[in-house]
Amino acid sequence: MHINQKKKAVAGLSILSNVILAILKITAGILSGSISIISEAIHSMSDFLASVLTYFSVVKSSEPADADHPYGHGKYEDMAGFIEGLLIIFASFYIIYESFRKIIYSVPMEKENILGIIVMFIAVLSNFVVSSMLFKVARESNSVSLYADGEHLRTDIYSSLGVLIGLFLIKITGYTLLDPIIAIFIAMCILNTGYLISKKAVKRLLDYSLPDEDIEKIRKIIASYDNVTLKENGIKARQTGPTNDIDLILQFPSDTSICKCHKTCDEIEKQIQILYKNSSISIHLEPLCYNKNCSSGCNKNILVKN
Fold first, then answer.
1. Which residues share a beta bridge with 240?
2. Other C-beta atoms within 10 Å of 24: how many?
3. What are the helix (H) ranges across the chain?
4. Which terminus of the chain is less hemmed in, N or C, by CB atoms within 10 Å?
5. Residue 91 pLDDT grade (very low, low, confident, very high; cuts 50, 70, 90)
6. CA nearest 184: which of 89, 94, 90?
7. Spatial distance between the Cα atoms of 14 and 186, rounded to a whole number of angstroms
8. pLDDT band at 304, cuts 50/70/90?
9. pLDDT of residue 54
10. 181-213, pLDDT tens digit by residue?
């Protein structure tokens, strides 16, 4: 299956899973009066909105470059990741609000919570399977929106597991105050995840450079060739959606033919593509002796772009 088809398939599966879980959690929450289950239902609804957004961004980012988007549509995924992070943060604040309201006003919950226990168990299993698939395809495609959706569901695993344990304890002890306390703990975990996702997406939207370790790997590839030098500050690299944009300025000895320069650049491109499969690489060539005030007139050496 083509990678774009895989992305659409897992994004669609995430939508279906979140719709079913949200309905089940709302039903269990209303019947039991459990704020922790209702909080989980809110979390699943935010998961649903996020998965719809993910599907839209995956479809758009797979479209080829056009006149209005000459660099492609990759930033749709970055924007989707940022909005998903905000949705997670919003959901966490709402859960905290409802939990404190329940503690202050001592709103009771029903002690009969077998349905809630069953629903939470289903949620843990379902989200584990779907999030694992999302992470797998996200790694294959370098997709920030699929990664964000996977993180979204992974927080749901932990939070659902927390609610499940809490419901068992409530059933055993009858101590219903555990319900909003567990919900607050869940909300804090969700809040942290939302912050991390939003931070990562903002970096990409603002064309933040690739990590230093990635830049160093590119430098080592170039350094492995004897006849080429990376110009000082001659590397720029960023991530746009699933694509890495890499710009290089390479310098060659002035007696190197254009054909040999071009061949070396092709080899460097191939090595970088092996390291970063989905990359757009632009290389500018200069003679090693070049400076903007040069007047030597090296007629046989021509500046070219690869």
1. 243
2. 22
3. 3-32, 35-61, 75-105, 114-141, 144-173, 178-205, 212-223, 258-275
4. N
5. confident
6. 94
7. 21
8. very low
9. 76
10. 877 887 887 788 788 878 877 877 776 677 788
* Residue 73, Cβ density class (10 Å: 0-12 exposed, 13-18 middle, ≥19 buried): buried
* C-alpha radius of gyration, the chain, whole number: 26
What backbone torsions phi and psi does residue 256 show, to the nearest 5 degrees?
-80, 130
**The residue to which tokens 């040069």 are assigned:** 294
Can you state the angle between helices 144-173 and 75-105, rounded to 10 degrees?
Answer: 20
Helix (H, G, I), strand (E, B) or coil at 241: coil
Mean pLDDT of the chain: 78
Token representation of residue 117: 């226990």
What would the two tokens of residue 285 be?
């060539």
Nearest residue to 152 (alpha-carbon basis) of 179, 182, 190: 190
Q: Which residues pair with 244 in a beta bridge?
A: 239, 279
Q: Give burial (CB, 10 Å; 0-12/13-18/19+) of 292.
A: exposed
Residue 145 has pLDDT above 80, yes or no: no
Q: What tokens does 306 get?
A: 């690869």
One-letter amino acid of 209: S
CA atoms within 13 A on the CB side of 243: 19
pLDDT at residue number 108: 58
The predicted model scores a pTM of 0.60
Structural domains in the chain? 3-205 (1.20.1510.10), 212-287 (3.30.70.1350)
CA dist., res. 99 & res. 179, Å (int): 8
Token digits of residue 86 = 């905000």
The C-alpha atoms of residue 299 and residue 284 are separated, in whole angstroms, by: 18
